[in-house]
Amino acid sequence: MKRAPRTPSEKDQPVRVKVNSEQCQGHLVCAFKAAELFDVDDRGYAVTPDRPLAGEAEVAMARDAANFCPERAIELVP
Ligand code: SF4
């Protein structure tokens, strides 16, 4: 039996993690939760890599950091 071609789903779409610099207050809970994804700029605020997240493990880490961010400054975006 032939399989139907796979259609792109939301799960297949590349996702990036972004920090809203106007909301970020520099608590760095994000860097504690996901050091691989969050760095600190020279003003002490969080920065993220300018690339799509690599796989479900990174997406889960980014979601976890977003859930713990006290300022709700972290978003996962297409
Ligand atoms: S936890 Fe949220 S507010 Fe704090 S540094 Fe990270 S992104 Fe910014």
Written description of the protein model:
There is one protein chain. The chain has 78 residues and is of the alpha+beta class. The protein has one domain: Alpha-Beta Plaits, CATH 3.30.70.20. The protein contains 2 helices and 4 strands. The protein has helices spanning 29-33, 55-68; strands at 16-19, 39-40, 46-47, 74-77. It has a two-stranded antiparallel ribbon. A two-stranded antiparallel sheet has the order 2-3. The radius of gyration is 15 Å and the shape is elongated. The chain starts with 15 loop residues before the first strand and ends with a strand. Residues 19, 24-30, 46, 69, 71, 73-74 line the site of iron/sulfur cluster.
CATH topology: Alpha-Beta Plaits
Give the count of helical stretches.
2
Provide the spatial order of strands within the biggest beta sheet. Answer: 1-4
What's the total count of β strands? 4
From N to C, what is the helix and strand string? EHEEHE
Residue stretches low in confidence (pLDDT < 50, at least 5 long) are none
Protein structure class: alpha+beta
Can you give the mean pLDDT? 89
Shape annotation: elongated
CATH C-level name: Alpha Beta
Helicity range of the residues?
10-25%
Count of domains = 1
Largest sheet: 2 strands, antiparallel
